[in-house]
Amino acid sequence: MSAHLDIAILDVDGTLKPGALGIELLGALLEAGVCDPKPVDAVLEVLSEHRGGQVEFSTMAARAYSAYARALAGREVSTVEQLAREVWAERRAELFAFVPELISTLRAHGFELMLISGSPIEIVRPVADEFEIAAAHGAVFGREEGRYTGTVALSSGVPGEKAKIFAAATRGRELCVERCFALGDSITDAALFERVGLALAFEPGPELAALASERGWATATRDDVVARTRALLSSLSPSNRPI
């Protein structure tokens, strides 16, 4: 009999806390004079255009990552990483109240936790460290000799990318995807939901809500997400574990 790995994949922005840590980091970089304001304005502009229905999600994401990379170009990686830790120290109080109980519930059921976020890895890693989660994935910007190159190495918030990240992170491991759990709030989580057996859409945006209704994915709010998670996990009795 061989043990199979059960993984719980958690989104961060809009799921573990309101808002977007990547944008909050960008604001801190601008305030500290670490980045050029023009590409920062470009990020905010394309986000506004998407919210106004002028730009569809994939185009918005690609343009936002490109502008973010330009904002970081030439800056020292260590400076950005330090600012990211400071931003998280300020923002950690904004975590939804259910988060500690959710994480303890998943661990009690034997899940290995993984964060996959559309925000930069520099700001995702402090969140992972907060909860002692070893596997943390986020957007990656090109680096060379300790400085950013102005290029995008991984656009983790582009639709479809989270599923690829999950596949790459678990390649070669004894994984039972039917027993894996995913929690997220936006269309970027949809491809990941399609790969796992236990998908839970958290206060989903319109696009994800429509897909959840169509695919039969469970939904939850901040008031019932732990209960909804427990209901999904209740189907995973030890006797159902594959061998």
UniProtKB/TrEMBL annotation:
Molecular function terms from GO: hydrolase activity; metal ion binding
- Gene3D superfamilies for this protein: HAD superfamily/HAD-like, SG protein - dephosphorylation function
Xref: InterPro entries: HAD-like_SerB, HAD-like_sf, HAD_sf
Keyword flag Metal-binding = yes
Recorded hits in Pfam families, A to Z, give: HAD (PF12710)
Q: What is this protein called?
A: Haloacid dehalogenase-like hydrolase
Keywords in alphabetical order, please.
Hydrolase, Magnesium, Metal-binding
The source's superkingdom equals Bacteria
Which NCBIfam families has this protein been placed in? HAD-SF-IB (TIGR01488)
